[in-house]
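hey so u asked for the seq, here:
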Amino acid sequence: MDSPGAAVPPWGRAAHRAARAVRRPFPAALLAGCTAALLLQPAPAASAVPLAPAAERRDFPGGGSTVALPLPAGTGLAPTTTRPFELLGVGWDGPAGALADGAVRVRTRDAATGRWGDWHTLEADTEDGPDHAAHAATAPLWTGRSDGVAVEVRPGPAGPPPGLRLELVDPSAGAAAPAATRSLPAAEPDGHRAPRPAIVTRAGWGADESIREPGYEYTGPVKVVFVHHTATATDYACSDTPRVIRSIYQYHVKTSGWRDIGYNFLVDRCGTVYEGRAGGVDQPVHGAHTLGFNTDTSGVAAIGTYVDAAPPQHLLNGLAAVAAWKLGLTGQAADGHAKLTSASDASRYPKGTVVDFETVSGHRDAFKTECPGKSLYARLPALRTAAVRLQAP
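ran it, structure tokens below
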């Protein structure tokens, strides 16, 4: 296990965007103090831990919850025992870019072993999300079942933003995906149309539909599929995928203030395809996945971090299958090109710029980011080829 002063490993949201993240060393004295506190802190039973006086807990009808712990000093949180959680992030009031020139690091304690893990940097810049975000938050970090957390914050030049808070997400138990929730393949493909892959619906991964905004938003015909990675752990058990998705969903809605989960689809390391944002898998649902280019596109997220780790073949197969099918619904070839217009100056291209994209593109093609990780991005040409084969008449 690395010491608190060790280099942060490539796990967590910041890993795939290291090239643009601002990195400055944290004070040695602060790190030493945190180390001592970690060694001395007792670990009472998590179920007996009361909420901190200023903490705000939100319980959802489906059984999930989030707990917001204020960070009023803007400098972080000493190692603290908490109620169990599985995903975290930091939110604040004010502009989305308020922490862009700062840094946020977290460390968590495994609820099963009592061991503290490594420090991980949370990405403070906005990249996923709607083109006009209403709330500000870092990207989420999947931690697995945890019952302790420490936070370090180095504010940017403007100082800590108001309302800085740590958000801890405990997903609901959800429901297993029965066979009835999986879509059956379609009949023979026609032209660019590809067979419909089996898709685990929102009911299958246990989405609590009461927490999202009612109704749906639709865009024009899907011209481009953007491939992402969630920048979470890659060694998860595929049986845990529904919990990971429920956690991301709760964070996107309750912490980031989005109407629903941002991605249109998610694919796990075993190749299983999951429905993301509600509105119908065969419909052009307007997502919140590629800032500036959410219109006329679909976002597909590979669950895991694929900066250095090679994406499993099953994962690649699932990505190719859903991309081929989704593009085929609008007659788009998986190895073709399409023009999109930027809707945000915060994207790679100024607002109003018309950009020619490959119909299967990586997130980094539209935004200054390492997403979907260099290893997965390098496999996109092969993924396009596989998708084209599925579209063959």
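Residues 1-47, 175-189 have pLDDT under 50 and may be disordered. The first strand starts at residue 56 and ends at 59.
lmk if thats what u needed
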